[in-house]
């Protein structure tokens, strides 16, 4: 047994909780061949989980934060208050503007009555046309001033509502980068909210592989961070974005996921297996049983049994899972024998 293989075997035994090597005869070790097939040629792309609706909540005006009733991880309803800012000065301006509106309306009433009286006097030839025109002009001026004051009061009333920020839709708070007492400025991000109902995966694909993507295909998205029973998620739709990154020469694709998947969060790593439109006869995919693959942290490996029956630990790069089989992207060759039980193989390797 080589030094590197002995180290891998020791690590495997330590991680699996085996305190001392057990004597297992090589003949009792069950092996399976690495299966090769070209039934579905494709490629694997790495991606990330995103929320279809994710909103950064920012202020439109300046003000000190006086109430912050939510925190990261909280579920909120549509219209629920997220942030309150100090609006005392704005409220005083609204009151002053309302008083000015009342004064303008009173002046308008006086000007209207005076205009009506002047019209009656003009019909009796008691005043000249110039006096009547002057009264009409004063009435129109008072009316315009009253309308201006009403509009200004409405603008101030609307602006006073900017001091309270509410949730745009029902969702989950993912980040709150501010604290109580901080100064909110126009455009400054105060918190981020996303809708957990609709999620998608965005992956990056080399531009030369975009033409090979079959649009109407059933794609299985693997989320390694999810529990084993929820790790494989079928995508509803594949969309290729019509934009190529000039720096990396890659194209983004979006895969819509089913709604309401518990435990799925934006930012999680995803692995996408895509099939090509055409199948090449000389391109094979390699598969081994899922149970023959050992996974611990960043280590993914299988035990390859050589012609002498000696199990050798070999690190592999994994592809997607199909049924009870695990695709191997690199690390083994077609026809090689791998141990069906990696724990038994580890005991044999450690005992030599």
What does this protein look like?
Mean pLDDT is 84; it is low at 1-26. The protein has 4 domains: 3-40 and 282-351, conserved putative lor/sdh protein from methanococcus maripaludis s2 fold (Beta Barrel), CATH 2.40.420.20; 44-52 and 198-275, Beta Barrel (Elongation Factor Tu (Ef-tu), domain 3), CATH 2.40.30; 56-86 and 164-194, Beta Barrel (OB fold (Dihydrolipoamide Acetyltransferase, E2P)); 88-161, Helix Hairpins. The strands form 5 sheets. A 7-stranded antiparallel beta sheet has the order 14-13-17-3-12-16-15. Strands 1, 19, 20, 21 and 24 form a 5-stranded antiparallel beta sheet that branches. A 4-stranded antiparallel beta sheet has the order 2-18-23-22, with no helix packed on it. Helix 1 (3-16) packs across helix 5 (342-351). The protein has helices at 3-16, 88-123, 129-160, 207-210, 342-351; strands at 31-33, 35-37, 42-51, 54-58, 63-67, 75-76, 81-85, 164-166, 171-175, 183-184, 189-194, 199-206, 220-222, 232-234, 237-244, 250-256, 269-275, 285-289, 294-296, 299-305, 311-315, 317-322, 325-330, 337-339. The protein is elongated, with a radius of gyration of 36 Å. Helix content is 27%, strand content 34%. It starts with a helix and ends with a helix. The protein is of the alpha+beta class. It is built from 5 helices and 24 strands.
Query: What's the β-strand tally?
Result: 24
The assembly state of the depicted protein chains is: single chain
Q: How many DSSP H or I helices?
A: 5
The rounded Rg comes to 36 Å
Distance between the first and last residues' Cα: 7 Å
Output the helix-strand order: HEEEEEEEHHEEEEEHEEEEEEEEEEEEH
Structural classification: alpha+beta
Whole-number tally of structural domains:
4
Cross-sheet strand order for the largest sheet: 14-13-17-3-12-16-15
Helix content: 25-40%
Report the CATH C-level class of the largest domain: Mainly Beta
State the low-pLDDT regions, or none.
1-26
Quote the CATH topology of the largest domain. Answer: conserved putative lor/sdh protein from methanococcus maripaludis s2 fold
Shape designation: elongated
Residue-averaged pLDDT, rounded?
Answer: 84
Strand residue percentage: 25-35%
**CATH architecture annotation name of the largest domain:** Beta Barrel
Biggest β-sheet description: 7 strands, antiparallel
């Amino acid at each position: 047994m080589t030094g590197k293989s002995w180290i891998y075997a020791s690590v495997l035994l330590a991680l699996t909780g085996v305190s001392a090597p057990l004597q297992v005869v090589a003949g009792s070790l069950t092996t399976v061949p690495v299966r090769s097939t070209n039934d579905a040629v494709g490629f694997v792309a790495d991606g990330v989980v995103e929320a279809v609706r994710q909103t950064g909540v920012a202020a439109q005006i300046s003000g000190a934060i006086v109430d912050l009733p939510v925190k990261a991880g909280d579920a909120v309803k549509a219209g629920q208050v997220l942030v309150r800012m100090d609006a005392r000065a704005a409220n005083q301006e609204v009151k002053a503007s309302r008083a000015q509106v009342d004064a303008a309306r009173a002046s308008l009433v006086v000007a209207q009555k005076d205009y009506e009286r002047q019209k009656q006097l003009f019909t009796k030839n008691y005043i000249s046309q110039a006096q009547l025109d002057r009264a009409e002009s004063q009435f129109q001026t008072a009316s315009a001033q009253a309308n201006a004051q009403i509009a200004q009061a409405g603008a101030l009333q609307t602006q006073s509502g900017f001091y309270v920020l509410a949730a745009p839709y029902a969702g989950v708070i993912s980040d709150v980068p501010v604290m109580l007492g901080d100064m909110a400025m126009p455009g400054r991000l105060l918190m981020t909210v996303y809708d957990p109902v609709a999620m998608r995966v965005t992956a990056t694909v080399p531009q030369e592989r975009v033409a090979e993507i079959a649009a109407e295909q059933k794609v299985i998205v693997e989320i390694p961070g999810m529990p084993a029973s929820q790790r494989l998620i079928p995508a509803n739709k594949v969309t290729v974005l019509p934009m190529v990154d000039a720096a990396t020469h890659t194209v983004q694709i979006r895969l819509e996921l089913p709604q309401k998947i518990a435990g799925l969060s934006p930012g999680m790593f995803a692995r996408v297996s895509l099939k090509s439109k055409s199948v090449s006869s000389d391109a094979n995919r390699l598969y081994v049983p899922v149970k023959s693959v050992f996974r611990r942290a960043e280590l993914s490996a299988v035990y390859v049994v050589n012609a002498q029956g000696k199990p050798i630990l070999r690190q592999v790069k994994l592809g997607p899972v199909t049924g009870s089989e695990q695709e191997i992207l690199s690390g083994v060759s077609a026809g090689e024998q791998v141990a069906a039980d990696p724990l038994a193989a580890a005991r044999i390797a450690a005992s030599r």
